Amino acid sequence: MEGLREKPKITPIESSGQELSPEMREHFDSLIKEASSHYWTFDKLGNWSKFYHDWEENNLAFKKTFLEVRKIWVKMKEGDTNFKEFFKDKIRDDLNAKAYEAYRYFTLYQDLYGVGDYKFLSEILDHEAVWTNSDGSLMHNLLQAMGESKSQDCVATIIKYIDHVLSPEYKRKSHIDSDLDNAISAMINIIGADKTCDILDSLAEADNTLKGWLEKNKIKAKIKNGSIKFYLFGSHRVEEFDLVTENERLATLETELEEFEKNPPPPKKHKMSPDMFGSPFKDLDKNENDDWIIPGPYISETNKTKEAISKPKEKVSHTESLLDDNAIRWERGRLLNLYGRFKPKAEKPIGMTTGNYLDGMTATLGIGVSSPDHYLGILNGVIDEKNIRKEGEELPTLKEVEEAYQVVAVAFARGLSLGILERRVDDAISEIDRAKDFIGSCAEKFDDPTQISFLLSLTDQLGQLQVFLSEQVAVTPPPEIPESAQSFLITHPSTKRVREVADFRDLLAEKIKWYIANDLHHNLQSIQLKIENVGTEDEKIVPVSGPSFGRLKSIIEEYKRGIELYKKVEQSDVPVYWEARESLVKDFDSKRNVVFGRDGRYFFTALKASEFGQRRSVQKYVVITSSMVGHHDQRRKDMATKYLHQNGVTLDFNFIDTGFSGTIPEFAIRALADADNTHLSHDEVNSKIKLLSSSHPGRAQIARRHGSNAAQTIEDRPKSIDRPDHLVLDENGKVYPAINPNPVKEQLRAWVVEHVSFRNFVPKLDYDHLPAELKISPETLKRLKEKGLISDQLPEKTVDDILLDVEKESEENSEDNEWMTRTALDTRVEGKLTSFMEKHLDDISKEKQGEILKDAMRLYEVSRDKVAPVVLDFARWCLERAKPGQKVLFLARDGLAPWIAARMLVRQGKFPGITEDQLKYAHLSRNITWQEDETTLKQYLSQLGVEDDGEDLLTVDVGMFGAIHQSLQELYPQKKVNSLYLISASRDEGIEGYLSDVKKGTGSIDPIWKSIPGNPAVHFIEDTFSGFYGSTQGLEKSEDGTIKPKLGVPYSREVYLKRLAAIDGIVDHILSLEPGDPQKNSAELNVYLASQFKEDKKYIMVPHE
After folding, report:
1. 738 or 926: which carries more pLDDT confidence?
2. What pLDDT score was predicted for residue 767?
3. Among residues 128, 74, 392, 353, which one has the least CA distance to residue 241?
4. In the structure, what pLDDT confidence band is assigned to residue 848 with cuts at 50, 70 and 90?
5. What's the pLDDT at 891?
6. Measured between alpha carbons, how far is 552 from 544 in angstroms, rounded to an integer?
7. Whole-angstrom distance, CA of residue 698 vs CA of residue 696
8. Can you tell which superkingdom this protein's organism belongs to (predicted)?
9. Domains, the chain, ranges and CATH?
């Protein structure tokens, strides 16, 4: 390759050389600097109607920002040619210096001047700093701009760029395919597909590398079939600028802003349609055979046509009824696997495009597809490469009407899936057009009028589908789903592996596609047609067996029904399960449970999910029905006993059923007791039985608040199997209930009900706060980082950022005395916490947000005014005992607040003999000092500056009993370890307490600290101010050989917000308020904890760990 290409000669691009005064340069520079901080907003400024639409739709804060940005934009445009050339030089200079601000600058430049300056576009794309950059963002923007400009003068630069991509200096080797595709697509948009192919042929003759790439990737074929085409991701066309008009617009905007501030409009309300998901579940099947009047997933009342509302059910012919009966035949006796994920499994998957759509629709003809996976791929827009025509090949000719029926059925299912499940209605209608045209062209090649009529009737079915889908264009957005139905993360406590549980709607759509794929697979193999009314004017071909279009529509309906069912189950069933679970744990200390029956499946799932990855309790599930019960039938009892033993059920379990008398659990208990020759009294049997709703006076009801109606509702929920009437013994000696599956629709609905239990009870991780040791897949990690929901930094870095932010703010407001008042601090922190909630808690109601904010602000004030003065005094007391050069270990996590206070005191120059580098935050806990080996501990502490032969060691902690102190003294026997505790309950030598010290005698201890275990005041001081991460789980060696902490379990978003408020209170007091008298500070804190805290604690406490 290198032998055929000379290495490009790179020279820096020269500036325009225009002469500007220093004042003008400074002015232009300031404009660019201001614009750079708002460059994401600039893309709306070049089109007035687009800008004004956004202006009208947004709130006051947005309008203020948007107006300021538009003023900057006008000033930049007002600079005319001088500013334009200055800006181009700015981009050139940045590229020459490889400062990498060029991407942002070029984005602004495009938003100001559009894409017309092809010479400048070419100049930038050809610069070495652009095409050798491992980040391809600027390259792709330039190619987009060239393609949009349609300037043929850009073609030479694109050719040169292709040469750069194939050169050794190119750094994006793993992206070569997509980078060349982008270049080729831009060229296609400028000069067309044919000329592009000619140029590529010419280039390939001189370059074997390019020739090989073109042949390997079949580029010419892709160009001709439309697989490679130019996609414009947002136009950069800019309207002609007129200063007079722009000044008039700015004046109008300022007037509107003033009016908006004086008379703000009422908040917008988005009212949901009254019929939205309104039908009860028991009525869902009544209209299953209706023709096209499926209540669309999200049709608003105002958008329903009169015809659609009032259209009566059409009469179903005997033939149509027979087709439906035959189409459902494959389901009988089949238990469809609906667990797991259902993704396309093509060997060489190719995305469906305009050019290969018909390849996908005709791929089933004559190849004997033996798996639903093929159809699942089609429904998801994926085609196996082997099913796409080779270059020059024609589509297969339909020789039989059965083949047309096959193609239309697949196109029909794909259209429904794309339009309803993926909500891409326009794309679905467009695809169906191609299928109609294909079938219509095939009809012209048939001679038999009856066959032609049948093909045209198939195109009519597709046309009706388009009419239905077109009604979806004006639909309302999807209704709000419960929070539990949104995506979330779970982690296995022992393996620490993280898995993202997808949005319920995505999972439901997957199941429905899998259902349809199976339906197509079975019914396309059983197509049978017959001719009715032979020899008459009404002669026609009708399907007797094969895919049913009405049935496909009814399967798609399960999407809406599934969401409806989810909400009903969460509203009525989940509260019952929560109460029942709490009763088992609190009232009966239940550690071993067996749940009975098909209707008990969902409570069992709730119990199992609530302890995911843990082994605190044993949960079992069995199916024994009333027809299996026989107290005097020894064979039945023996079979039941074997079945129970096989599932690990013994007499020490709680036997749980939905309701009402407990006959089935009693039979199971008696059978087990007889097998063990154990006699149980009636009271003993009753004590083992727990019922959600009990009609038996001696048997516990574990869902007392909900009663028999709730239990009856649960019993009536859909189930995947019919009620078994006996147990069977298989050839391996295993006992199972006799399984008779319900229809697949019922199985799908049963999956929905069970999934509600799983999602509501499985412990979730918060996106806002993920511990670092979790094993997250690269895909999940990338998705979370794109959402801005995961951080890579350790607590030390988090604290550094907090201190940097507050100190900057303090410096900026150093001359503003009002900034340091309590009222001003309250306002600032409330704004900070509100901003956090808008980013991370926007999925909960405003009312709930208000409650959370109120509690967090109450905690902030307590932290700032009551706790922080004592923390500051304690930190000062500790620093007074530190020696110059001595390492002081503030022990994680309770030592976080004193560590922050000590660092701030040192920064303020209060302890000139102490440096901030002496103050180390050490990730140590009792468990770590016990579980980690000596070598690991010493290496970690050595990284903090603690050596065997160094000075004595000083540690700082909240308290209490000195376990870590003892471990460190044993680790360094030649050193003197001293520990300073806020509250000391230790009598060990070397430990001293500040607020309370047991060694000073009980008379000197305030009553609030006399009892340590279970003391809410101790928990408050220990837990609330310990930062943003759970207890450190251990130490591990990183790739660079250093020892790093494995951070602990995550907190909920609400708890994280409270902890943030607590730390803000500490920092704000130190920066802004007078320290006060230490004795008085301690006394006030003790008084507060003994009095008002008793009322406040239910609002400001975080969970004790």
Report:
1. 738
2. 54
3. 74
4. confident
5. 92
6. 16
7. 6
8. Bacteria
9. 136-234 (no CATH), 322-556 (no CATH), 574-761 (3.40.50), 795-1100 (no CATH)
Whether the pTM exceeds 0.70: the reply is no
Q: What is the dihedral of CA 695, 696, 701, 704, to 10 degrees?
A: 40
Q: What is the pLDDT of residue 319?
A: 63
Cβ neighbourhood burial of 953 (10 Å; 0-12, 13-18, 19+): buried
Q: Which stretch of 93-97, 159-163, 229-233 has the lowest confidence by average pLDDT?
A: 229-233
- Band (138; pLDDT cuts 50, 70, 90): confident
DSSP-assigned letters across all residues of 294-354? ---TT--GGG--HHHHHPPPPPPPHHHHHHHHHHTGGGTT------S------SSEEE--T
Tens-digit pLDDT profile for residues 329-341: 999 888 888 888 8
Stretch 1031-1051: mean pLDDT: 78
Q: How far apart are CA 855 and CA 863, in angstroms?
A: 12
> Checking DSSP bridges between strand 727-729 and strand 735-737, what pairing results, if any?
antiparallel
Tens of pLDDT, residues 995-1029: 999 888 777 788 888 887 778 898 889 888 887 77
Cβ proximity of 323 and 552 under 8 Å: no
> Which residue in 140, 142, 65, 131 sits closest to 109, CA to CA?
142
Indicate if the pLDDT at residue 1084 is higher than 90: yes
DSSP percent split of the chain into helix, strand, coil, nearest 5: 55, 10, 35
- Taking the C-alpha atoms of residue 952 and residue 975, their distance in angstroms, rounded to an integer, is 5
Tokens at 36, concatenated? 């750079």
What percent of the chain stands above pLDDT 90? 33
Helices (H), 932-1009: 934-943, 963-971
CA–CA distance, 108 with 49 (Å, rounded to integer): 19
pLDDT value at residue 742:
93
**Residue 836: how many other CB atoms lie within 10 Å:** 18
Q: Report d(CA 1086, CA 1071) in Å as an integer.
A: 23
Note whether 13 and 131 are within 8 A (CB): no
- The HSE-up count of residue 762 (CA atoms within 13 Å, CB side) is 25
Terminal CA-to-CA distance of the chain, rounded, Å?
Answer: 64
CA angle 940, 944, 947 (to 5 degrees): 80
Is residue 1091 scored above 80 in pLDDT? yes
C-alpha to C-alpha distance for 713 and 701, rounded to whole angstroms: 16
Distance CA 579, CA 585 (A): 10
Q: Which amino acid is at 649?
A: V
**Tokens 């029942």 identify what position?**
580
Find where tokens 């299953």 sit. Answer: 288
Q: Determine the distance from the C-alpha atom of residue 757 to the mean position of all C-alpha atoms in its chain, rounded to a whole number.
A: 20
Contact between residue 1081 and residue 873 where contact means Cβ atoms under 8 Å apart: yes
Q: What's the CA gap between 1085 and 983, in Å, rounded?
A: 13
The two beta strands, 888-891 and 953-957, are parallel
Tell me the one-letter amino acid at 557.
E
- Token readout for 167 is 């050169």
Instruction: Please report the pLDDT score of residue 754 as a whole number.
Output: 95
Mean pLDDT across the chain: 81
Question: Which residue, among 139, 85, 90, 70, has the nearest Cα to 117 in the 3D structure?
Answer: 85
Dist. CA 168–CA 667, nearest whole Å = 78
Alpha carbon separation from 405 to 234, 351, 368, 735, 931 (Å, rounded) = 40, 24, 15, 46, 69
Q: Which residue has the tokens 């004795």?
A: 1079
- Angstrom CA distances, 529 to 403, 443, 520, stand at 11, 17, 17
Q: What is the pLDDT of residue 675?
A: 92
* 8-state DSSP, 586: H
Are 1050 and 766 spatial neighbours (Cβ–Cβ below 8 Å)?
Answer: yes
Ramachandran angles phi, psi of 395, nearest 5°: -65, 150
Contacts for 242 with CB less than 8 Å, ≥ 6 apart = none
